[in-house]
Write a structure and sequence with these properties.
Structural class: alpha/beta
Order of helices and strands: HHHHHEHEEHEHEHEHE
Distance between the termini: 50 Å
Number of strands: 7
Helix content: 40-55%
Number of helices: 10
Strand content: 5-15%
Strand order of the largest sheet: 1-2-6-5-4-3-7
Radius of gyration: 18 Å
């Protein structure tokens, strides 16, 4: 029988469950680990549709526990739940905090400020990043952005150049083959090499999907004392 902690890490890897389902399981069954032995009826009591409950039961029977933990160790991925002491305290104050985050690297011990903006930026956006990021680093803030092309990537690069720590929040898994956009996979490596972190609420092996990125954005904001929009369209 797997330990309680191993059981909840295993359950958190099922890509059919998001934070809402995991939260309902924790509150209804008394812990995410309980899902590993739950029946369809018990899962339905957690607000999970029967078809999804059946998919989960098939998945937990077919998926090797050791395979999941081997991948976590290989990629040096931490799995941090909302009740863990290392869970970012500001993130917990959101109205809809992620039940679990997958982390590579080191979460900053200092305060964070998020900087986001357009993929296609103007000279104005470039100037703003060059002006604001070194000051944020100088005052001891880590920066947070989304690793996207454009302003996001520029924020991460400028932070590293200024000697600061930066956090990239992804809408995919944090394991190397799934880092998105692929053009910035090298930047994810630099973030880790310089003491920053890449994080996601999506388990390893999760590909990019359009609906993931608005979900990712709430975490970018939730990690930080403030969010600065450098440059963006009205929408």
């Amino acid at each position: 029988m797997p330990s309680k902690d191993h059981s909840r890490v295993f359950t958190a890897h099922f890509r059919g469950f998001g934070s809402k389902q995991l939260r309902n399981i924790r509150k209804t069954l008394g812990g995410i680990d309980r899902a590993l032995q739950a029946s369809v009826a018990e899962l339905k009591r957690c607000g999970i549709k029967e078809s999804l409950a059946l998919d989960f039961i098939s998945w937990r029977q077919e998926t090797g526990l050791q395979t999941i933990f081997d991948n976590l160790n290989k990629c040096k991925i931490q799995v941090i739940f909302i009740d863990d002491p290392t869970y970012p305290p500001l993130l917990k104050e959101m109205s809809d905090p992620p039940e679990v985050i997958f982390v590579r690297g080191a979460l900053p011990s200092s305060g964070c400020v998020s900087f986001v903006g357009a993929r296609k930026y103007s000279q104005y956006g470039h100037i703003c990043v060059n002006l604001l990021i070194p000051d944020a680093v100088r005052y001891g803030f880590a920066t947070v952005s989304g690793l996207a092309l454009g302003i996001d990537g520029l924020v991460h690069k400028k932070t590293i150049e200024a000697g600061g720590k930066t956090v990239a929040v992804l809408g995919t898994g944090v394991d190397d083959p799934f880092i998105y956009p692929r053009n910035n996979a090298w930047l994810a490596d630099r973030i880790l090499e310089t003491g920053g972190a890449i994080i996601s609420e999506f388990p390893p092996g999760t590909s990019a999907r359009k609906e993931h990125f608005p979900m990712r954005n709430r975490i970018i904001a939730g990690l930080s004392r403030a969010t600065v929009v450098i440059e963006a369209s009205l929408k």
